Amino acid sequence: MAMRASLPDTVTPEELRRRLEAGNAPLIIDVREPDEYAGGHIPGARLLPLGQVPMRYRELPADQEIVLVCRSGNRSGLAQEWLQAMGFRNVRNLVGGMRRWNGPVEYGAGQRR
């Protein structure tokens, strides 16, 4: 049986931006709090605050690549470890989080800047 190559545990902001621009974006999960998310998030990112991950992880597709994002990469790193412990294999952490993100940003209910 062939083993599927595993993805690296992280993705750079530049790589994620290129993939967004090419229409090849993974599922992006923002684990910050709702007020942080409303203050600016990556277009298409779904909000799932870190504290809700243990109760709501079944909502996430285990067979799809997921990129986790927070402000700096710490909370998303915790979510990544937890999801990997629950059997998720294609979960990556955005290096530097929103502090390093230099791509498009949506605000509130989807306004872009």
UniProtKB/TrEMBL annotation:
<dbReference type="InterPro" id="IPR050229">
    <property type="entry name" value="GlpE_sulfurtransferase"/>
</dbReference>
<dbReference type="Pfam" id="PF00581">
    <property type="entry name" value="Rhodanese"/>
</dbReference>
<dbReference type="GO" id="GO:0004792">
    <property type="term" value="F:thiosulfate-cyanide sulfurtransferase activity"/>
</dbReference>
<dbReference type="InterPro" id="IPR001763">
    <property type="entry name" value="Rhodanese-like_dom"/>
</dbReference>
<dbReference type="InterPro" id="IPR036873">
    <property type="entry name" value="Rhodanese-like_dom_sf"/>
</dbReference>
<protein>
    <submittedName>
        <fullName>Rhodanese domain protein</fullName>
    </submittedName>
</protein>
<dbReference type="InterPro" id="IPR001307">
    <property type="entry name" value="Thiosulphate_STrfase_CS"/>
</dbReference>
<feature type="domain" description="Rhodanese">
    <location>
        <begin position="22"/>
        <end position="107"/>
    </location>
</feature>
